[in-house]
Design brief:
Strand content: 15-25%
Distance between the termini: 57 Å
Strand order of the largest sheet: 6-5-4-7-8-10-9
Radius of gyration: 26 Å
Shape: globular
Largest sheet: 7 strands, mixed
Number of helices: 17
């Protein structure tokens, strides 16, 4: 049935135009992924060109491997549809992320293949042919098998990071430990806000990787009325938790929220006076691309504030884990090595930022309870949830309690700071 002036399509016409089956269209309607814009009095589906754009997005996300639930999360933000340009920008961000993950997996596979070839060649040269030893690099005792762990890590990396930042619960756990046991009475978020300077009025601010919005919640009464703040995060769950946290503040009507990736920021050139990246750049694989994007959206003279950690950050916590079990790690990645206090300036300057300065925040932890420390450790990207399963976890807790009883507290180094760089 052709309705009105031909602007509406039946399910059959819509499916034919999109190159999919009517069965697919019906299925997407049934699960709530793509309901029709209209229905006739008889209940027949009617679709518009806007529905076609939405179907294109669904099929693209399905093609690059997202599950139905992940696609639903991606397209049902706030119950509103983005315009076509914004939709394509978000798709571009997701595709870039998938391609980066595939590149890492491919690199791990090719390196393992090269090592296997090299090991096999060395083995044959060592034992020769026909000497009674059958060289087999597939034997489980071969050191090449160790390389397969790199493939497993690469394959699982994206899933683990998605789970780690699906919402703000893990972040809340970590913030809570710092709130309760930090030696410096002046909170990190208050100190960080003190460092921000604005050279224009009104001031437009973009935060990438906004986390749970604690920075803005704790400084809500200090934020100038002419600041326009846009908060972004790649995780829709994290972004929703941030919106919920800030919904009851005086900032409610002065904030904008958007899902975005730092490597493909969906804003025009030269539109922000300030960009803030609070403890997040070390998570980005293609960091130079992200820094180029940040510089692109900054106005001339605009400033990037990028906070991070140093090489000794939480050193004693890592030593506690390793001392209990040599296989235990706090994180699968050395964040300070990726983008830390020791190497952040070089990376920012290489990306074209000028006048780069570093501000250090002096603090440490004095932990007097075992449970919050265990909760912190299990909220990180390390392997404690698996390695400390079963009887290991109670034993580890006993170890921490004994240390607290002997010394009064567990002292843990903190190294944090903030880089400022100008466009």
């Amino acid at each position: 049935m052709q309705a009105h002036d031909g602007s509406l399509m039946t399910a059959g016409q819509f499916a034919a135009r999109a190159g999919v089956t009517v069965r697919t269209i019906r299925f997407y309607d049934k699960i709530g992924l793509l309901p029709p814009s209209f229905r006739t009095a008889a209940g027949n589906r009617q679709y518009t060109m806007r529905d076609l754009a939405r179907l294109q997005r669904i099929l693209t996300l399905k093609y690059i491997g997202l599950s139905i639930d992940e696609i639903k999360q991606a397209i049902h933000r706030d119950g509103q549809e983005e315009d076509l340009r914004q939709s394509l920008r978000i798709q571009d961000t997701i595709i870039r992320r998938k391609l980066e993950h595939l590149r890492l997996v491919h690199k791990a596979v090719t390196e393992t293949l090269a090592q296997l070839d090299s090991t096999e060649k060395c083995g044959r040269e060592l034992y020769g042919q026909g000497d009674g030893h059958d060289w087999d690099s597939s034997e489980e005792t071969s050191p090449s098998w160790e390389l397969f762990t790199s493939i497993i890590r690469a394959v699982n990396q994206e899933e683990k990071w998605a789970e780690q930042y699906r919402n703000a619960s893990n972040l809340h756990t970590r913030i809570s430990l710092h709130d309760r046991f930090s030696v410096n009475p002046y909170n990190w978020h208050l100190w960080l806000f003190d460092q921000l300077e604005t050279r224009s009025s009104p001031c437009s601010i973009l935060e990438i990787g906004c986390g749970d919005g604690t920075l803005w919640k704790r400084n809500e009464v200090r934020i100038p009325a002419d600041w326009k703040i846009t908060l972004t995060d790649f995780s829709t769950g994290m972004l929703q938790d941030t919106k919920d946290k800030l919904d009851g503040t005086i900032l409610k009507d002065r904030l904008e929220f958007m899902q975005a990736d730092a490597r493909s920021i969906p804003f025009p050139d030269c539109c922000f006076d300030m960009v803030l990246a609070n403890h997040m750049l070390y998570h980005v694989n293609d960091r130079q691309q992200a820094l180029a994007e940040i510089r692109r959206v900054l106005k001339p003279g605009g400033v990037l504030y990028a906070s991070t950690i140093g090489a000794n950050h939480l050193r004693e916590m890592k030593e506690l884990l390793a001392g209990f079990d040599s296989k235990l790690v706090l994180s699968e990645t050395d964040f300070a090595e990726e983008f830390g206090l020791e190497n952040g300036r070089v990376q920012l300057e290489a990306a074209g930022f000028r006048g780069v300065r570093l501000f250090r925040y002096e603090d440490s932890l004095r932990v007097t309870e075992a449970e919050p420390l265990v909760a912190y450790i299990q909220s990180t990207t390390g392997n404690s949830r698996i390695t400390l399963a079963g009887a290991g976890l109670p034993k580890f807790k006993v170890r921490l309690k004994d240390l607290i009883l002997q010394n009064g507290a567990i002292h843990i180094t903190k190294e944090s700071g903030l880089f400022a760089g100008y466009k």
